[in-house]
Every structure is written in structure tokens, then in C-alpha cells.
Amino acid sequence: MLRAEGSIERIFLYRHPVDMRKQRNALAALVQEVIRENPFSGAAFLFTSKRRDRIKCLIYDRNGFVLWYKVIEGKERFAWPRKLEQDVLTLSVEQLNWLLDGYDVWKMKPHQTLYFFARRLMHFEGEHGIVFIRALTLFGHSKKPHAEHESR
Q1: Distance (Å, whole) CA 71 – CA 21
Q2: Cα torsion at 90, 95, 101, 106 (round to 10°)?
Q3: pLDDT tens readout for residues 111-151
Q4: Which residues lie below 8 Å from residue 59, measured CB to CB, with a gap of 6+?
Q5: Of 21, 28, 74, 121, whose CB is crowded by the most CB atoms within 10 A?
């Protein structure tokens, strides 16, 4: 699975569409000439296609370039910033992973934390005597439950 690591310190996203036939040398030249960054710095550089259904990520790793290429199958598209003044944006590793998972990094709100707890202890009488079963009915709340709820 394609995942960025914490060892990548800087991630640059180039907003304009790029011809996806470009390989490592052409993308490295674009990084140097247009983005004005050093392609050998170990930073990650993200590019997308005109339809925004493909992403390429160029990284120089110790002794050569690594080129990640992800294509979304179907009608989905990557959320890519289009109406900003800057040509290049900086992302965190977490934002890159969200982008690869299909989230719109620029409009997204964090998910609420939910706390779950079971409510009942039930018993049944059957052929083999009484059986106690803790109910697996879970109740989600956005606030941490009080101690009285946790003990039930």
C-alpha cells in the first residue's frame, strides 16, 4: 500500500495538471525549473493529471528516484486545490495520506471521537442451565461517558 512515512520532512503539491507520461527525469526537471526546489533534497513532490484521477509522487531516496503512481479506478477524483494563488502548496505527511485515501484536505473537518460502552448483562435459560451474556449493544457518544455508564 502506498503510504508516506514520517521521514519525509517536506511535501510539495504542484497544483497545475501535468502530463502523466512524464517520468522521473522530466518531473525532476519540472521540480528544478518550475517549482524552484532541489529534486535531490529528499522532499516529496506531488503531481496530478488533468482529470485528477492520477497522482505521481517523486522522491529522491539515498541513491535514486522513487516514483509512486496511483490511479483511481471508476469515476472518483482526487480533491486537488484549483482556486488558489500559489502554484505550489506544502502538505504534512498526514495530509498526504488523507489525500491518497480520498479526503478533501482543504475542506475536511476532523472526525468526532466516539466513545462506546456495553449496557446490559442478559441471561438465558436453556438445555444446559442458565447462560449469562454481556449484551453487545454499543452506544456511541461524542463525549466520554461518566463512570456510572462504564460500570453497567
Answers
A1: 13
A2: -80
A3: 445 555 555 555 556 665 555 555 444 444 445 555 554 44
A4: 8, 42, 43, 44, 45, 65, 66, 68
A5: 28
Query: What is the C-alpha to C-alpha distance for residues 44 and 67, in angstroms, rounded to an integer?
Result: 10
Q: Is the separation of the CB atoms in 120 and 152 below 8 Å?
A: yes
- 12 touches 88 (CB < 8 A): yes
Residues 6+ apart with CB under 8 A from 92: 11
pTM: 0.66
Region of residue 149 (left: phi > 0; alpha: psi -120 to 50; beta: else): alpha
d(CA 105, CA 136): 35
Closest CA to 96 of 138, 56, 132: 56
